Amino acid sequence: MDRNVLKAQMQERFEATWEEACKAVETAPDGQWIAGSEWQVQEAFQKLMADCYREIVQSRIDALPSEKQAAFSPSRKPGTGAARQGRASGPRADHRG
Length: 97
Description:
By secondary structure, the protein is mainly α. It has a domain at 3-63. The chain is 58% helix and 0% strand. Helix 1 packs antiparallel against helix 2. The longest helix has 25 residues, at 3-27. It is elongated, with a radius of gyration of 19 Å.
């Protein structure tokens, strides 16, 4: 995984998302800046977050040797393939709250 290349790509996406968020606030009607832009800004940054995470995980998958790539399947049922994801660690990793 080339972190610098990935970081540069994500910075470009961040700047585009930033512009989208600023435009949403700037075009919101007077007296309704928050109500007129909040969801647009939130959706833009949630999409950026999902894109970033997907690209980071995909970059790690791409860095695997080909036989491990073939064994990785995000849709495969746990314990049915050669590769298994490790147990989550850290506070609140196993619990939603």
